[in-house]
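General statements about sequence and structure are easier to judge against a single worked case. No coordinates are needed to read the tokens, only the vocabulary itself. The sequence in question and its structure tokens are set out directly beneath this paragraph.
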Amino acid sequence: MKIQLSAVAIGLSVAFGGTAMANTTGDVTQSGNYNKAVVDQVDTSSVYGLVNQQGSLNDGTIEQDGVTASNATIYQTGTWNKAVAEQDGGWYTGYNQNATIHQAGMGNQAWTGQRGNGTAANVSQSGDYNRANVEQNGAHMGSVTATVSQAGYKNDAYINQDGKNLVATISQSGKLNKAITLQEGANKFSTVSQSGMGNRSFVHQR
């Protein structure tokens, strides 16, 4: 889960790390045009990775590795809007991983990957291409929850969960509307709501 960046790709990178550190915050705010941000946080607890982008190409990434009680938030408004939030707390030591991605209009691609004891992901997208992918491994304890909300146009949502106490919710409004939910483990609950046009849904639980 370590990010490799070229000098061209970096744009803006904020890295925080160190062994046994606590209360770590990475905060990036950008306004207009090309807007690229990376927050990389390693081996720490009580972690906050925050990216706030406004308009144009908007590419935001938060990487949190070896963390406990971690929070990743990416807020984007308009144009291409690509967001990645990865949180890895490990199989036994990491817990309480929370990721939130909000996107407004045009490209809107969101990817969230989480591993740890107690994971929660929330992705909300407004208009245009709207593609969201959430993958969660709940390890051994705690709940695993994912919520994807999409407004209008292509609306493609995918949730893959493994662990215990699995809750997946997908809500879509208008146009092509495709939803896939995969759940493996104990105590599984899935809800899919679709409104108008393509409307295809697949839920697999085992």
